[in-house]
Design a protein that fits this description.
The complex is a heterotrimer of chains A (about 425), B (about 230) and C (about 290). Chain A is an alpha/beta fold. Chain A has 14 helices and 15 strands. The longest helix of chain A is centred in the N-terminal third of the chain and has 30 residues, at about 1-30. In chain A, about 55% of the residues are buried. Chain C is mostly helical and about 290 residues long. Chain C has a domain at about 15-215. Chain C contains 11 helices and 2 strands, in the order H-H-H-H-E-E-H-H-H-H-H-H-H. Classes of the chains: A alpha/beta (about 425), B alpha/beta (about 230), C mainly alpha (about 290). Chains A and C meet through strand 7, helix 7, helix 8 and helix 9 of A and helix 1, helix 9 and helix 10 of C. The site of magnesium ion has 4 residues of chain B, from helix 1.
Chain lengths: ~425, ~230, ~290
C-alpha cells in the first residue's frame, strides 16, 4: 500500500511538473511576438484587500475605479486608441506580504499583467515593489502609506501615487503645532504603519517647534484605550493635543473613548493621523466636529471632484475614498502614457512618465518625480464639518487649506532613494 | 428485586463483561468479589446506565430498566455510590445530601441523617471534599438513605480506609440493611465482606464464576485471598 | 497614587467585559464540556443587535439591554438543540470545527450586510458626562458598565450558590455523569444554560456598543483574551472566571500604563505563570487533590 501511494505521489508530481513546464513554454510564446503592445493587450492588475479591514477604503471599488478609467480612456481615444484589448484583473492579498508577493509574481509571470495597482498595507506594498523590480514591470502603489516605497526601497518600476506618512504628518502635525498646540501625546498602533506615522509626526512636530511629550505604542487590534486616556492629562508637561495614528476600528475606539473621558474639556485636543469618510460615519460627525486631518483628496473638494464622485456613485452606490480616486487617476495616467509612447513596454512607459507633469481631478500640480518616483501633488488640510452643515451621507469634510505639492512631499534629495 | 441477565460490556474492542447474570433479593446484602480489573466497576456502571456499550437485561422489581437513562434509574430507587465516593467539591456537605431528589417513601429526613451521623451535622456548611475519606464515604451512603433509595449499589466503600474506619463502614451498611434497604456491595476485602453480607458472587474474567455463602467464604478465605492476590 | 488607582479602575471596566464573557464561556464549558469558540461572535451580535434595534425600530439602548440578550439566548438555545448537543460525546476537534464554523458564519453574515467598517452608536444621554469618584472623575457610562457587570456577576453568583437550580448547575458542571446518576436530568438543564451563557455574551455586546467600535470583527479580536481569562480563572470555575476577568483587566491596564508595547503579551505571560504554579487555574480544583 505504502509503495502504491508513493508511486501515485510521484506520478502526480510528474504530471504537475509537466504542466508547469508546458505552462511556462506557453507563456513564453506570445512574448516573442514583435509589436508595440505585448500580447496585443494591456493588462492592469489590481491587488487589494477584497474582504478584510481595508475592503471598503480600497477593495472591490478600487477595482471598479480602475475599470472605469479603462472605459473612459477608450471612450476618449475612440478609433485612435492604442489597443482595444485592455483588461483589468484583481486579486485579494488579505493585507499579507507573502500573499501579495506570490500574487504579484503570478500576475506578472503567468497572467501577463503589465502594471499592478493599489496594494494597501505597507509591508505588502514593499513586497510587491520588490517583485516589480525583479520582473521589470510597472507598479503603481496607491493604498499604502510608507515613505520607504520612495525611500531606501525605491526602484525604477515603482511609483507611489496617492499619499504617504510624510504628507499626513506635515499636513496635520505641522499645522496643528503652528496653531499653538505645542505639546503632543502620540499613540500609535504597534506595527509598521503606526511606527512610520509616529516617526513622521515626531519629525514634523519638532520642525514646527513643538515637542512630543510621550509616544506610546498600543496593541493592535485594540478595543480598550482607557489607560492612554487617563494617562494623557497627567503627563508632564500636560499635552495640548493627543495625536492618534490608529486606523479603522481602532480609530473608532480611540475617538469614542476620547469622548467618554472628556479629554477636550480637560484641555487635550484630538488630532487624527489618517482618516476616511467611513471612519467619520462610524464615529458620528457630532463626535468629531472640528477635528483636523490631512488627506490627499476628498470627494467634495470642488466641482471636478464632485463630478467624478457622482459618476462613481452611479456605478457603485457609494461615495469614493481617496484610494478609489487615486486608482482611477493612476490607471488613467498609465494608459495615457502608453498612448503617447505607443508601447506598453515597461521601460518605454517609465521613461515617458518620468518628469511628466499633469493636473486631473485627483492630483493638482502633479509630477511623476523622476528622482524617487513619488507622484507629488497638492494635499489638503481638512476639517470635519459641524453636524448641522452636513447635507448628505459622507458629506463630512471641509477644506481648511491646500498644502502645495512641494510642502506635502519631502525633497527628493532627502528621500534616501538611489534609483540606480 | 434486582435481576441481572447475561450482561456484556465493552470498551472499544475489549470485551470486559462476558455475560454476567446475578440476582439480589429484597433485604439482602450481597457482595461482588473479584480481582482488580475483573469488571466489577463496569458492572455497577452498567446497572446505573452509565456504560453505553452494553447488552443483556437488567430488571428491577420485575420491570426492565436496561434502556432507562441514569436519572430515571435513580428515581426508580437505585442509590449509587461510585468507587471515588462521588462527593462534590463545589457543594457543601448539606448540599451533597440534598442534591438528589427524594425517590421513595422511606427517605430519611435531614434531621434523621444528622442524628445518625453527627459528624455530618457538625460539618454541614463545609465543602464536601473537605471531609476525610471515611467521612466522605459516610456522606455518600447517607445521601442514598436520604433519597429513600431501595437498593444501595456501593463500589468498594472500604478501599483505602484504616481498619477502624472499615469497621465504621460496616456499621453503616448494617444500619442501611436494618432500614430495609437492599445492598449490592463491591468488595475486595473478603473478611470484611463476610461480616456484613449474606451472600457473595465471585467474578472473574467478566463472568460470575461462583456464588458463595458466608460459611464457604470463611472456609476458603485463604484460597480466596490468594486468588484475589492479596 | 490616584493615577495608579485610576488605572486599576480602567482595568475593572475592561475587566467587566472579560468577566461577563468568561462567565458564560465557563458555565457552558462546565455544563456541556464544549469550548464555545462562537462566544465572541455572540458578543458582536449583541452590539449589532443594539445597533439594529436603534436604527430600524428606534428602540433605546435600555430596551436593547433587555431585549437583545433574551433574543440571543433563544437563538443560543435553538443552536444548542440543533447542533451543539451532538458534540457532547464527540472528539474535541468537532467541538472546535462546529463552534468556530458558527463564529465564521455569523461574522461573515454581518460583514455581508454591514461591511467591515464600524457602525455608529451613541451612548444613552442620561449616562453622558462624568462622575466624581473622590480621587478622580470618571466617565459616567463606564462607571455604569462596571457597576452593572459587578451586580450581574453577583446576582449570578447568588443564584448559583444559594438556589437549588444553582446547586444543580454546580453539580452538573463539576461532574455531569454522576449528577445524572443521582436522579437529575442534566440534559434538561444543558439547553437553558447554553442559552444563558450566550445571553451574557450578547449583554456584554450591548454594553460595548456605546464605547467600542461596532464591527464584524470586534468579537474575534476579543475572544483569544477571553480564553486566557477562563484558563487563568480555572476551566469550569464560575467564580474563578469572573475574578480572573477583573484581574486580567487590571493587569492589562497597568501593563498599558508602564510598558504599552508589552501589554498584550502580559495576559499570556500571566496565563503561563498561573498554569505553571497552579495548573488547574487560580480557582480551579485540581483533580483528586481533595479526594
Ligand atoms: N475507560 C476504560 N477504557 C478502557 N478500558 C477500561 C476502562 N475502564 C476499565 N477498563 C478495563 O476494563 C476492565 C474492567 O475494569 P473495571 O474497572 O470494571 O474492573 P474492577 O473489577 O472494578 O477493578 P478494580 O478492582 O481495580 O476496581 C479492566 O481490564 C480495565 O482495564
Ligand atoms: Mg473498580
Amino acid at each position: 500500500m505504502a509503495t502504491k501511494l508513493t508511486t501515485a505521489g510521484a506520478l502526480t508530481a510528474t504530471i504537475a511538473m509537466g504542466a508547469v513546464i508546458a505552462g511556462c513554454a506557453g507563456a513564453g510564446g506570445p512574448q516573442s511576438d514583435s509589436g508595440a503592445i505585448t500580447d496585443d493587450a494591456i493588462k492592469l492588475g489590481v491587488i487589494t484587500d477584497l474582504s478584510g479591514v481595508y475592503s471598503e477604503l480600497a477593495g472591490p471599488n478600487a477595482v471598479e475605479a480602475v475599470t472605469m478609467a479603462v472605459e473612459d480612456f477608450k471612450a476618449e481615444h475612440g478609433e485612435d486608441v492604442v489597443t482595444q484589448n485592455i483588461e483589468v484583473t484583481d486579486a485579494d492579498h488579505q493585507n499579507k506580504p507573502e500573499i501579495a508577493n506570490t500574487t504579484a509574481r503570478e500576475m506578472y509571470d503567468r497572467d501577463g499583467v503589465d502594471a499592478i495597482f493599489d496594494v494597501p498595507t505597507s509591508s505588502a506594498a514593499l513586497a510587491v515593489a520588490n517583485v516589480a523590480k525583479q520582473n521589470q514591470k510597472m507598479y503603481f502603489n496607491i493604498g499604502a502609506a510608507t515613505t520607504e516605497l520612495t525611500g531606501e526601497q525605491c526602484n525604477a518600476y515603482t511609483y507611489h501615487y496617492a499619499y504617504n506618512t510624510y504628507m499626513l504628518a506635515h499636513g496635520t502635525g505641522k499645522t496643528v503645532t503652528e496653531q499653538g498646540a505645542e505639546n503632543w501625546y502620540i499613540i500609535y498602533p504597534d506595527y509598521a504603519f503606526g511606527q512610520d506615522m509616529n516617526k513622521s509626526f515626531t519629525a514634523a512636530i519638532k520642525d514646527a517647534g513643538g515637542s512630543v511629550v510621550k509616544a506610546d505604542p498600543t496593541p493592535f487590534p485594540n478595543d480598550n484605550f482607557s489607560t492612554f486616556m487617563t494617562k494623557a492629562p497627567t503627563l508632564s508637561p500636560k499635552p495640548d493635543v493627543m495625536g492618534t495614528m490608529q486606523a479603522g476600528g481602532d480609530l473608532v475606539n480611540v475617538v469614542k473613548q476620547y469622548n467618554e473621558f472628556g479629554l477636550r474639556d480637560k484641555g487635550v485636543e484630538l488630532a487624527v493621523g489618517l482618516m476616511f469618510d467611513t471612519d467619520i460615519a462610524s464615529i458620528g460627525v457630532d463626535k468629531l466636529e472640528g477635528t483636523l486631518y490631512t488627506t490627499p483628496w476628498f470627494w467634495n473638494l470642488d466641482d471636478q471632484s464632485r463630478e467624478w464622485a457622482d459618476r462613481f456613485k452611479d456605478r457603485t452606490g457609494t461615495r469614493p475614498t481617496f484610494d478609489h480616486a487615486a486608482n482611477y487617476s493612476a490607471a488613467m495616467q498609465y494608459l495615457q502614457a502608453i498612448q503617447r509612447a505607443g508601447s506598453d513596454d515597461a521601460d518605454t512607459v517609465r521613461e515617458e512618465l518620468d518628469g511628466h507633469t499633469f493636473d486631473d481631478f485627483f492630483a493638482r500640480n502633479a509630477e511623476f518625480r523622476a528622482a524617487d518616483h513619488a507622484v507629488t501633488h497638492d494635499a489638503h488640510l481638512a476639517r470635519v464639518k459641524e453636524e448641522s452643515d452636513v447635507e448628505e451621507d459622507f458629506d463630512f469634510t471641509e477644506l481648511v487649506e491646500t498644502i502645495p505639492a512641494d510642502e506635502a512631499y519631502m525633497d527628493a534629495a532627502d528621500s534616501g532613494c538611489e534609483m540606480g | 428485586m434486582l435481576n441481572v441477565d447475561n450482561v456484556t460490556a465493552r470498551y472499544g474492542e475489549a470485551q470486559v463483561l462476558q455475560g454476567v447474570s446475578l440476582d439480589v433479593d429484597t433485604g439482602e446484602v450481597v457482595t461482588l468479589v473479584g480481582r482488580n480489573g475483573a469488571g466489577k466497576t463496569t458492572l455497577l456502571r452498567c446497572l446505573m446506565g452509565l456504560h453505553r456499550s452494553m447488552t443483556g437485561d437488567i430488571r428491577f422489581d420485575g420491570t426492565s430498566i436496561a434502556t432507562l437513562s441514569p436519572h430515571k434509574r435513580c428515581r426508580a430507587g437505585l442509590g449509587y455510590v461510585p468507587d471515588d465516593r462521588g462527593i462534590y467539591a463545589s457543594l457543601s456537605v448539606e448540599e451533597n445530601l440534598t442534591l438528589p431528589p427524594v425517590v421513595g417513601p422511606d427517605a430519611w429526613s435531614l434531621e434523621k441523617v444528622y442524628e445518625t451521623f453527627p459528624v455530618l451535622a457538625e460539618r454541614r456548611r463545609q465543602a464536601g471534599t473537605h471531609l476525610s475519606g471515611g467521612e466522605q464515604q459516610m456522606l455518600a451512603m447517607a445521601r442514598v438513605l436520604r433519597m429513600g433509595a431501595r437498593i444501595l449499589l456501593a463500589d468498594e466503600p472500604t478501599e483505602g480506609l484504616a481498619p477502624l474506619l472499615v469497621r465504621q463502614i460496616g456499621e453503616i451498611i448494617r444500619t442501611v440493611k436494618e432500614h430495609g434497604v437492599t445492598v449490592l456491595l463491591i468488595e475486595q476485602n473478603v473478611h470484611f465482606a463476610s461480616t456484613v453480607a449474606d451472600r457473595h458472587y465471585l467474578i472473574a474474567q467478566g463472568r460470575v464464576v461462583e456464588s458463595l455463602d458466608n460459611a464457604e467464604v470463611e472456609q476458603r478465605e485463604h484460597e480466596l485471598l490468594e486468588y484475589l492476590g492479596i | 497614587m490616584s493615577g495608579l488607582l485610576q488605572q486599576l479602575f480602567n482595568g475593572l471596566v475592561s475587566g467587566s467585559f472579560y468577566a461577563l464573557l468568561a462567565l458564560g464561556l465557563s458555565v457552558i464549558f462546565g455544563m456541556l464540556g464544549v469550548v464555545n469558540f462562537a462566544h465572541g461572535a455572540f458578543y458582536m451580535l449583541g452590539a449589532f443587535g443594539a445597533f439594529v434595534l436603534l436604527d430600524s425600530a428606534g428602540l433605546s439602548w435600555w430596551l436593547a439591554l433587555l431585549v437583545v440578550p433574551i433574543l440571543l439566548g433563544v437563538i443560543g438555545m435553538v443552536l444548542e438543540r440543533l447542533f451543539v448537543h451532538r458534540l457532547m460525546h464527540l472528539f474535541p476537534l468537532y467541538n472546535f470545527l462546529l463552534t468556530f464554523g458558527i463564529a465564521l458564519i455569523l461574522q461573515d453574515l454581518i460583514r455581508m450586510k454591514y461591511g467591515v467598517t464600524s457602525q455608529p452608536y451613541a451612548r444613552p444621554s442620561i449616562l453622558d458626562g462624568s462622575v466624581d469618584l473622590g480621587l478622580f472623575t470618571y466617565p459616567k457610562y463606564q462607571v455604569f458598565v462596571f457597576v452593572f457587570s459587578i451586580a450581574l456577576s453577583g446576582l449570578v453568583w447568588l443564584v448559583l450558590s444559594r438556589t437549588r437550580v444553582g446547586m444543580i448547575v454546580r453539580a452538573s458542571t463539576e461532574r455531569a455523569e454522576l449528577t445524572q446518576s443521582l436522579g437529575i436530568d442534566v440534559r434538561r438543564w444543558v439547553t437553558p444554560v447554553f442559552g444563558f451563557g450566550i445571553a451574557l455574551a450578547g449583554l456584554a455586546g450591548v454594553l460595548a456598543a456605546p464605547m467600542r467600535a461596532v464591527n464584524s470583527s470586534m468579537g474575534a479580536d476579543l475572544i483569544i483574551v477571553i480564553f486566557a481569562v477562563v484558563v487563568i480563572g480555572g476551566l469550569g470555575s464560575v467564580l474563578g472566571s469572573v475574578a480572573a476577568g477583573y484581574i486580567v483587566g487590571m493587569v492589562t491596564a497597568i501593563g498599558n500604563f508602564y510598558v504599552p508595547a508589552l501589554s498584550q503579551s502580559l495576559v499570556f505571560v500571566l496565563m503561563a505563570l498561573v498554569l505553571l504554579l497552579r495548573p488547574a487555574g487560580l480557582f480551579g480544583r485540581e483533580e483528586g487533590v481533595h479526594a
